[in-house]
Amino acid sequence: MFVDFFIKRPIFASVCAIVILLIRLISIPTLPIARFPEISPTQISVTSNYSKASAEVVKTLIEAVVLVVIVIFVFLQDWQTSLIPAFTIPLSLIGTFAFVKVFNLSINSLTLFGLTLASGMVVDDAIVVVEQISRFI
């Protein structure tokens, strides 16, 4: 019955909610906060160094670039046109790592996944440009 009253009169329910909110806001300065001690959470920092991780990343990166150039060569069937994406991939990687360095981001799995996607888009755009140029020549 009490709930039914508020359902049938939503304006009265809104006014009651605003009054309760104002009472709570007015009572904030009277809270005894000074009695309680200052509590700050403990901070934990975990760092680790992987001795062979950077060598593996560089090796994987070189393998990926070589595989991409081979795939582009297979699809375009011309070594001169495969040079364009071969030059754009390292340029996009340099730009991406400069962005990561400027904004102090970490190289984690998500960053590497984004880097893979960006490289794929660069290669795709390069292939489209080369196909359009060769169509009009």
Write a compact overview of the structure shown.
With 137 residues, this protein is mostly helical. It is 71% helix and 0% strand.
Please give a structural write-up.
The protein has five helices and no strands. The chain is mainly α and 137 residues long. The radius of gyration is 30 Å and the shape is elongated. The chain starts with a helix and ends with a helix. The mean pLDDT is 78.
Provide mean pLDDT, rounded: 78
Number of beta strands: 0
Q: What Rg is obtained from the alpha carbons, in whole angstroms? A: 30 Å
How would you describe the shape? elongated
Number of helices: 5
Poorly predicted runs: none
Q: Per DSSP, what share of the residues sits in E-state strands of 2 or more residues?
A: under 5%
Largest sheet: none
Pattern of helices and strands? HHHHH
How far apart the termini lie comes to 82 Å
Residues in helices, as a percent range: over 70%
Structural class: mainly alpha
Features:
single chain; 5 helices; 71% helix; 137 residues; mainly alpha
Please write out the topology:
Layout: H1 2-8, H2 10-27, H3 53-76, H4 83-102, H5 109-136
Helix pairs in contact: 3-4, 4-5
